[in-house]
Amino acid sequence: xxxxxxxxxxxxxxxxxxxxxxxxxxxxxxxxxxxxxxxxxxxxxxxxxxxxxxxxxxxxxxxxxxxxxxxxxxxxxxxxxxxxxxxxxxxxxxxxxxxxxxxxxxxxxxxxxxxxxxxxxxxxxxxxxxxxxxxxxxxxxxxxxxxxxxxxxxxxxxxxxxxxxxxxxxxxxxxxxxxxxxxxxxxxxxxxxxxxxxxxxxxxxxxxxxxxxxxxxxxxxxxxxxxxxxxxxxxxxxxxxxxxxxxxxxxxxxxxxxxxxxxxxxxxxxxxxxxxxxxxxxxxxxxxxxxxxxxxxxxxxxxxxxxxxxxxxxxxxxxxxxxxxxxxxxxxxxxxxxxxxxxxxxxxxxxxxxxxxxxxxxxxxxxxxxxxxxxxxxxxxxxxxxxxxxxxxxxxxxxxxxxxxxxxxxxxxxxxxxxxxxxxxxxxxxxxxxxxxxxxxxxxxxxxxxxxxxxxxxxxxxxxxxxxxxxxxxxxxxxxxxxxxxx
Length: 487
Prior knowledge:
single chain; alpha/beta; Immunoglobulin-like; TIM Barrel; 2 domains; 11 helices; globular
């Protein structure tokens, strides 16, 4: 196994220390006083040359402000001004991810899975998405019942999932038993669609008999997984309901969502006593009308609204999420799939783009954030021939495991920000900043520097000021102010 970043961190850390000293002198900034009570920020930094480096603690002072004349960029964090609760961080199970890992030994697979799910050493993921049937990263298109007209689901079977998906999920649960798993189909059985095919779109047939059968299909799925010790906590009706493509897809309207959830799926799951929640989604666009087109038909129908627990959005549906957040501020909102790129470049630029996406989605009101493929082989190819990026890459020819810049970018968030945190207010003339107030009282800021040069910044956490420090060029930094000690 190799690390994506080949260089050591000791020399770079010393270089940064020298650079910070020179910069402070050039700005005539007095070194910060020791903070009252010994308060300081823990600092973790990643660059392409050296990821996940512990930098020297950053002292904070509540008595000595920065000189007005300093040219350093300012970052202010106020954890007392906090908005939506962050439920957690997650990723998606797909057949091709587990297949990629089969070249590894059992110990090698376990190491990769721990890098994702271990609550002490990995990304600490607590949420996972799985396809309900096939998708663009399954080996082949399939559903759980391709017997035409089988409305009673007498031929329903999850046998296909036993080869790749279920072992993948079980391996994650062995590491993180509290993992919350939710599911969504890319397509219903082909005979429930206007084109009679699992791929290339087709409209969902919405007569009552078909929708009742689809609700039974969902119910059988949840029950089948439950019998294997896998609890499906939530489902959504359809992935990207406006997409037609050569991989599994199906078109729906917002009105069809309302009819299915309120009069078929909701009653079926409740009647089976499963306790499985329903979110609307996953929506991936806003142009048709956003909230009004996709969400309002369900939330404005009392019969449907009683079954709606949240809304899931991805890709270009941040406008739909933002509108829903304004109209229904108490509605739980989930970002359901991070963009995956148009190639398998897995480079630093892709990680920097992902940072911007995290900013976009939390600004729109997201309460959780989900990576798409967690693991892929070196080609990154879907069954439609589209290469995509992933946090971890396993070379199917050599068994080499690569932790990409995307992995470390995500870890700068998921490692530090606890489930139950709140998005905290930030201000200042440095653009790339996000902050969170953890339930244990600690405060976290994740700061990016996409510039090709080092940059001088000064941090202010809840009124306590740092001195000037240097953010390395093309870097991600997480700063943590620990919870105050009890008096």
